[in-house]
Request: fold
Amino acid sequence: MWSPRQGRLRPTVCGVEELRRRRREQEAALRKARREQQLVSKRLLREDAPEEAGEGCVAAILGEAEVRGQGKVQQFLRQAQRGTEEKEREGALVSLRRGLQHPETQQTFIQSVLEGSMRTLVGLLTSNQALLQLEAARCLHELSHSEQSTIAEACLPATSYLLTYLSGHSSDFIELCLYTLGNLIVESEAVRRQLLPQGIVPALAACIQSPHVAVLEALGYALSQLLQAKEAPEKIIPPASASSSILASTLPQHMLQMLQPGPKLNPGVAVEFAWCLHYIICSQVSNPLLIGHGALSTLGLLLLDLAGAVQRTEDAGLELLACPVLRCLSNLLTEAAVETVGGQLQLRDERVVAALFILLQFFFQKQPSLLPEGLWLLNNLTANSPSFCTSLLSLDLIKPLLQLLPVSNVVSVMVLTVLCNVAEKGPAYCQRLWPGPLLPALLHTLAFSDTEVVGQSLELLHLLFLYQPEAVQVFLQQSGLQALERHQEEAQLQDRVYALQQTALQG
Amino acid sequence: MQLPPALCARLAAGPGAAEPLPVERDPAAGAAPFRFVARPVRFPREHEFFEDGDVQRHLYLQEVLMQVADAPEKPRVPAFACQVAGCCQVFDALDDYEHHYHTLHRNVCSFCKRAFPSGHLLDAHILEWHDSLFQILSERQDMYQCLVEGCTEKFKTSRDRKDHMVRMHLYPVDFRFDKPKKSRSPASVEVPGDSGEQSEGEAMEICSEPVAASPAPAGERRTYSHRIPSTICFGQGAARGFKSNKKKTKQC
Reply:
């Protein structure tokens, strides 16, 4: 159910080890790219296997001609344009497309732009032969996937037509145009600078009303690439940028509709739009507007739905949707607007806490790297909410929370922070924290070497001693002082260690 | 990590908020050297906190690449012909037929049989080419609507509109779906080069001189090259197919 492209894609026949190695390499490359803020990924819609038949074809293209197959590229184009038999023309474009799956041929094509190769292709894209049009669009799609950024700019003459076709009716064709646009968008700022005045935002807003799931997923992809652009927070998202603005269009409402749980929720579509929403929200441009559209309640309900899906063990790819949903909720909760409706938090349903813990358990088992994101939401839910803090206690969630402590230092700090959120609300809360597993857990974290973990433990101890003085005795009996002594020399911890030692000795 | 058994039941039950325990803070709680303050945290776009989730997102996007797209062959059916009167195109796959139909028969002008990619463009065409009231009104007010989705500007002549689309919307000067109407009047202000219908075979003639790929900067160009034959309203349509003597589709 959660596999977005069932029936179109099947796993490769490579061995499992090979797959794992490739994936590790990919992951390393992506991390590096992200740190350099150059994360660019494209989707490729490919409909036939580029194996033996394709290889032979490429060899033909690359083989004999002096100028790296330039002659062949031109030949196929001429044949497509002027051939007498329709099948022959289509065949020429298919051959060209297969060749364009390879970087050398893409390069050749671009080098022949001055001789009119792109012009010819655009002519075929707008021809009166439907199938030629389709093949030309596929050639363009292959080009859009290239890793050479000059190619994106060479495709500029085609963009107005790609946009025009978005208001057509042939869903496969529209899907192809959308993925092509998405790939071009992510590659080049020059392309985005042209697409915005060409009306891409209104075109997408019209296209989002399509009933076809594949079209919607493609649209979500293209939109997510547009929103991920580094100039998006200033030039693309804000309502003030007039006709090219996302927030001024009907797109946000439609996006939220795609995220509403129910029988019509399509996972592949929802993933794309959840990421779109994340890019908008974390740009912090106009989040109260989104809250006004009901973003908090929609996302809250979606979270509940996700937790339900986890329990039904429909877990293939759930984290792909859970991650952006958690991020959106967490960031939205920091907006002041969240509290304006009658002075209460808009999001008050304690089922959200239950759902979050079910997801945390899922992450713990399947994807521990997402635990910090889940805990981030838990922090934002509990920080200013006595009600949610009470829920943590009444639903018996302190113990499971403590079980996350050993995962990593980052996770430990966040768990301790959430516990501080609860403890700082006063004696009524601390009474429910002790006796119990909390004190032993704290004695354990005091043995960590990470300064931040220890620091947060000290804060929690302080609150516990203040609001629940009986805990002090037990602390002393369990060698608490020795645990504190270890950190006496640490600059960032000294003052707090000393203060706690004093409290313990006087208590 | 073990969750209490009652949790699932809570999720399944109705909405509700816990009645909060009384909050009672002691000022000593925040006193130095302790510094904890409960507060919601926000992370901006590029924060490294998002690294892991972002990497996973991109692995997912790239997964489509990694898998050999071994799509099954298009299901073939016994050959059938397009049912639209006068169209002789034959197909052996339903997807091909769907695209053909939407491209050539869906938004067709009932007056001149030209096909358009969208209802929006068809409507504009009918108004501007076949509506005599439009011609009358356009003498007195701006009637030529910008063809770009979402733009509400209107213009006195189709030439002004094209000007606008090129300058403001960065559309190509030879945009295929904005051909000015042929005028019979010799004193017409229409752009030269609209030499009447040509057969399909020449519909894709390219300019013999190389043309730069990017559109001209705003305001520079007033004359447009129209070497491309004006026939590129695509889908000259089934009816016209019979008139051309260079027909390539299968004979009926």
Observations:
- Chain B has a mean pLDDT of 73.
- The helical segments of chain B are 6-12, 51-66, 94-104, 119-130, 132-140, 158-167, 237-241.
- Chain B touches chain A through 107 residues (CB under 8 Å).
